[in-house]
Amino acid sequence: MIDRELLEILACPLCKTEVRLEGDRIVCARCGRRYPIRDEIPVMLIEEAEAPGEPAERGSGGSGSGGPGGGGGGAASA
Ligand SMILES: [Zn+2]
Fold it and tell me: What is the DSSP string of 1-46?
């Protein structure tokens, strides 16, 4: 079990943000990386951290908004 006091002094090594205990892992409040706890000792190592769910790849083949660009905005005066 991790002490709350210990948690308070821990910080994400990546973004220096406070972390919280979630289940049996330490979770960064900012980047969402999860650090394992081994033998009741939080392993605050970036390379040991589990990255948060990586966002689905986007950009490749994104058939985005198919709307026409401008559209006739103003009534032609004159
Ligand atoms: Zn972080």
Answer: ---HHHHHH-B-TTT--BEEEETTEEEETTT--EEEEETTEE---G
